[in-house]
Amino acid sequence: MTDLTDDLFLIHPNDSTTSPAAPTLDFTRTPTVLLTFAGNRFTRSATKDYLEKFGIGVMDWRVLVMLTREPGSSVSHAAQTMGIDKAAVSRALQRMGKAGLVTSETLLKDDRRKDWTLTPFGHDLHARILERALERQRHLLSGFDPSEVEAFTGYLRRFLENLETLNASDQ
């Protein structure tokens, strides 16, 4: 493990005119804070855009992507893969089922265990939103060259691996 000093991430009283009363996380130098802020703003922006243009939010879009990649996924598998609460995935699937985007097959005579797939309408919507998602991604990554995008993606994968290790040690 690399030695990263806490001072790398903290702002102290009297560091600037906007200093806090006590040492705390710096909003501009702390990767976890910046990642949280970016994730929240990205999700809010994508939800607004997709709702206006396609009538679904970012949660439903994530499920469309999941079922395009892995047709026949269960709620548990989708939730684990995406790192999202099973209840949120289940609500999205119910909503998407009512909209005619997904269909399910009950397995082993257990209504709680279903495999979900996209309908033709779901595949069509995925294709239309994918164009917009790629456009948004190009905009968000403008100014980055391909090697920077690869490095950034690698950093995020490593961060996620470290998070998995942290979560496993917390259990």
From TrEMBL:
<dbReference type="InterPro" id="IPR011991">
    <property type="entry name" value="ArsR-like_HTH"/>
</dbReference>
<dbReference type="InterPro" id="IPR052067">
    <property type="entry name" value="Metal_resp_HTH_trans_reg"/>
</dbReference>
<dbReference type="Pfam" id="PF12802">
    <property type="entry name" value="MarR_2"/>
</dbReference>
<dbReference type="InterPro" id="IPR000835">
    <property type="entry name" value="HTH_MarR-typ"/>
</dbReference>
<dbReference type="GO" id="GO:0003677">
    <property type="term" value="F:DNA binding"/>
</dbReference>
<protein>
    <submittedName>
        <fullName>MarR family transcriptional regulator</fullName>
    </submittedName>
</protein>
<dbReference type="InterPro" id="IPR036390">
    <property type="entry name" value="WH_DNA-bd_sf"/>
</dbReference>
<dbReference type="InterPro" id="IPR036388">
    <property type="entry name" value="WH-like_DNA-bd_sf"/>
</dbReference>
<keyword id="KW-0238">DNA-binding</keyword>
<dbReference type="GO" id="GO:0003700">
    <property type="term" value="F:DNA-binding transcription factor activity"/>
</dbReference>
<keyword id="KW-0805">Transcription regulation</keyword>
<feature type="domain" description="HTH marR-type">
    <location>
        <begin position="32"/>
        <end position="161"/>
    </location>
</feature>
<keyword id="KW-0804">Transcription</keyword>
